[in-house]
Design a protein that fits this description.
Helices cover about 45% and strands about 20% of the residues. It is an alpha/beta fold and about 280 residues long. It folds into 3 domains: about 80 residues, Arc Repressor Mutant, subunit A (Orthogonal Bundle), CATH 1.10.10.10; about 100 residues, D-Maltodextrin-Binding Protein, domain 2 (3-Layer(aba) Sandwich); about 90 residues, D-Maltodextrin-Binding Protein, domain 2. The protein is globular. It starts with a helix and ends with a helix. The model has no long low-confidence stretch (mean pLDDT about 90).
Length: about 280
């Protein structure tokens, strides 16, 4: 069976639209229809029912869906195993939210290596939505992220939180922050919601950035006011670039770990989760 058939089936389970699945997979709608017909021919049952109301899974389709997810996961895991280069043949793929890469990544890697010396680690910076997709497919083993995307194959746990602090090249007082030079941080939906509730006056501005490193670059090269991670704020103050806006609220962003449901009780994964909780938890 071609894995493309499974991928198309699972995407259609999510979108319930042949047209939307075609756009997401960058193929034609007729190709989507052809793949679904081919899969139905192989299985011997009809998987989708199309009507004026839209596209819906048949009873057989509903039964097949969890097995399709398992097939995709096992296929991607098998491909990854053939590409592992560690002497032990074991590689852990760990995804990190972009903003978290700068928080003691050297200490975290040292802790990983000490705990699992026979394991090779592949660390990649990414955004929450893509990491959740990669966890579901098996392309990633563990993800540290800001925004969990619940799914039947995914398990999430809270690790701790990171603090964002308002800094400015212009003022140290919140009342003097100008809207025309304020750069709105959009690091995660939870952060955006907290910001809008705490600072409604600054919720609608002309420039918004979704990554801490890019925000630091902007403040360094231009002038203005924005929220950055606490360690970045300290570096900007030490360099004489910014001052902390002392009466602005600190906004805390929760940090989560995600993994595939089938791995949540495995010993190596529990050790990694424990190390991540030590790293990002309250003691940090």
């Amino acid at each position: 069976m071609q894995i493309e058939l499974i991928e198309t089936f699972l995407d259609l389970c999510e979108t319930r639209s042949f047209n939307q699945t075609a756009e997401r997979l960058d193929i034609t709608q007729s190709t989507v229809s052809g793949r679904i017909k081919a899969l139905e021919a192989i299985i011997g049952v009809r998987l989708f029912q199309r009507s004026r109301a839209g596209t819906a899974l048949t009873t057989e389709g509903l039964r097949f869906e969890p097995h399709a997810r398992s097939l995709r996961y096992n296929w991607v895991t098998a491909l990854n195993a053939t590409r592992d280069v560690a002497d032990s043949g074991v590689t852990m793929r760990v995804g990190l939210q972009h903003d978290l890469v700068g928080i003691g990544i050297d200490r975290l890697i040292s802790a990983f290596r000490a705990a699992l010396p026979q394991t090779a680690f592949l660390l990649e910076a990414d955004y929450s939505a893509q990491m959740c997709t990669d966890l579901t497919s098996g392309a990633q083993d563990v993800a540290v992220l800001f925004t969990p995307k619940p799914g039947p194959d995914l398990h999430f746990e809270t690790l701790g939180e990171v603090a964002y602090v308002m800094v400015s090249t212009q003022t140290a007082r919140l009342s003097e922050v100008r809207r025309d030079s304020y750069i709105l941080a959009n690091y995660a939906p939870a952060f955006a919601a907290n910001h809008a509730a705490l600072l409604p006056r600054l919720a609608q501005v002309s420039l918004s950035i979704g990554q801490n490193a890019a925000m630091v670059d902007l403040l360094t090269s231009l002038s203005g006011t924005a929220y950055v991670m606490r360690h970045s704020a300290q570096a900007l103050v030490a360099a004489g670039t910014c001052a902390i806006v002392t009466d602005a609220p600190v906004i805390n962003q929760p940090v989560f770990v995600g993994l595939n449901l089938r791995n949540r009780h495995r010993a190596a994964y529990r050790r990694l989760v424990g190390l991540l909780r030590d790293h990002y938890g309250p003691k940090r």
